[in-house]
Task: structure prediction
Amino acid sequence: MKKIRPLTLILLGALLFHACSEQETTQPVDQVPDAVLASLENAGYDVFNQAPIPFEDGYLVEGDIYIRSAEINNLQKGTRLPVEEQYSTNNLVSTGGNRIITIYAFTGGGGKKGGGGGGFSAGMIAGLDLAISRYNAENLGITFQRITSSSSPDITLTRLSKGDERRGILGSAGFPTASGDPYNEIKMSGILESTYGLSTEGIATIIAHEMGHCIGFRHTDFFDRSISCGGGPTNEGDGGIGANLIPGTPSGATLAAKSWMLSCTDGGDRPFNNDDQTALNYLY
Ligand SMILES: [Zn+2]
Result:
């Protein structure tokens, strides 16, 4: 196992939720067909400052959003929106008043095997449980519940492939379906504790972030990822999925406010701040 130097962790902080810098050199943009880049760009994604990378049956865009190749051509034309508050996608989860969303995470294999059937360690599961309890403490119209049976969970937490874990991808998710269901799969790195030394709170923050995408949250700083990721200002655009401002949230995201939906994390703890709570309560 590669030893993580302090600098690597700092770099990781700047690039968490998407590729590490190493990866950008091993995954050149030209591996993504021009037609795909054009479709993503047309939908409003920034494909230059945040190059999509080949991932599973499609691409990771915006760092941690998984879009299957089959969906690329169905993306609607997006617009670049210079607005600043918290944002949701057009599709949201239908709650019917109070909906229980079950999550199943495989724990077999002692968490030692990466990807491809490997399970999550007790430390990762502790992070998942903390993430769930943070949502449930908000008394929303949705309640998350971890189940230990793999039969028909709403969301399945699976390990990224060994290769993706090694190249620094931390997690991926998608957005709710048009029929009002949460996105049904979160792929997580299983080495957040063992390799990166993240605390339970840090792990919970990353899992809660991916859960946030599954129920329709965009990145708080999607209009300018440099707020949390550093580098030059980049706007993810509406991505053909919508970026609807959530009433009651303040204008302008800041790194200091530590929203759990900032694009990049430093691996630390980001429990829901007041604005996050406003946004959660508005949507659910
Ligand atoms: Zn994200």
